[in-house]
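Holo model, zinc ion. Inputs:
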Amino acid sequence: MSPDAPRTAPRPAHPAADEVRRRLEHARTTRLAQLKALDETGSSSGDHLLSHQKDAIKRILAEIDAAFARVHDGTYGICLGCSKPVPPERLEILPHTRHCVACQHRAA
Ligand SMILES: [Zn+2]
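Output:
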């Protein structure tokens, strides 16, 4: 239960900041397009589902912004739960994530 990670400075594990930024940029563009598409489809049916979907996308957009900030201060790719580097293949699928798989499950 106790996070017994020693209080060391976060290691600057830079998975090529440029590449990360490009990935995040792409993720943001995709989400914004989805949001726009939902706006345009909207109003006809299933308002409830629609607003739910929009909320989910907005939440991810906020995560993406936060990830940009972490790229900026060099903490990107470090799990907030255990301070270990998040596996690169996970970052490829979920560039905005801030937890490794184990911590994600614990935090969910
Ligand atoms: Zn972790």
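Residues 17-107 form a domain with the Four Helix Bundle (Hemerythrin (Met), subunit A) fold (CATH 1.20.120.910). The CA atoms of residues 35 and 56 lie 10 Å apart.
Archived with the compound record.
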